[in-house]
Design brief:
Structural class: alpha/beta
CATH superfamily of the largest domain: Glycogen Phosphorylase B
Order of helices and strands: EHEEHEEHEHEHEHEHEHEHEHEHHH
Shape: elongated
Number of helices: 13
Distance between the termini: 12 Å
Number of domains: 2
Radius of gyration: 22 Å
CATH topology of the largest domain: Rossmann fold
Largest sheet: 7 strands, parallel
Strand order of the largest sheet: 3-2-1-4-5-6-7
Helix content: 40-55%
Length: 357
Amino acid sequence: MRIAVNMVFGVSEDQKKAYRDFMFQVFKRLTNSFPGHQFLFLFDRQFDTEIVFSHNITPVILRPAATNSLLWKFWLDAKIPKALKKYQVDAFVSAGACSSSTKVPQCLLINGLLANRPYTTGSLRKATILVTTSEHSKQEIFNRYHIQKEKIIVVYAAAREGFEPASSEVADSIRNKYTDDKAYFLCAGCVHPKLNPLTVLKAFSIFKKRQRSNMRLVLIDDFGKKYKSFAQSLKTYKYRDDVIVLERLDEEELTRIAGSAYAVLCPSLQRYITVLEVMKCGVPLMTSLSSATEVVKDAALYVDTKSVDDIAEKMMLIYKDENLRNELIEKGKTIASHYSWQRTAEMLWESILKAVG
């Protein structure tokens, strides 16, 4: 069988990284598991040669580069069909959108919900099989776009490699580097529709006033262009010396910071770290109710990310109750151990086979 894989992701920068990580992890395993099948990786520009990680991968560059939404649509509907026909492809796997101009069976990957673009509905209906990463997302697609549920398959992602409990030496090093040797709450991705950094600061103020703790707060996000006023607000914040703002961390440093945290607060749709990765680190998790629930179950404290009082209450609860904290850590590690990229790859392969029929 010959399978073409779209390695161009015409979505937001946040989703591009999520799709890229998913494709890399899954197809690294599929190409090795099925050496008798051929895989065509379709690019629109020069690519990192590390992506071609198996002998049965053929990279193909299709010009012009999809540098804007119109060229992205042209790339999908004009360039892709010609390539699929030329290479006699049996199935096409794409992320975010599919081609409207080919009869080749298409397996469309959707991480969360698609943005409401003019071609969203047509793309969903054109796909032979839709693969999404949660039952919550599956239900939303059904409710919003009226796609039959039999066509939608849930394939859970796993945690990236490297996320694990930090050794005492690593934790000491991280605290020494960032928080003056103090324990810290980590909030990853707080410039987010589900979470406002000012809400987190107000909640942290309540925590500090009531607990009189030397706990620090570490915020990880790209604050610059999206939230200029936040830096100004931080200047007048009472506990500004206890707040550390970090941007543009590489993945290795992120894993060390996450694994060394006292607890992690992250919204349910993560850009920097997923709920599974937090739990794999052996760190208690605070997250919002949504798609996270079906994975996390009772291994987290659920917060209303729009409520200052609720976030503060959960911070205080996890700080005061050491038994609860340890219970959440153990439950989280158990749940995280049930997910693997090998299983994810096997489920995606079954979806491709279903698309081909």
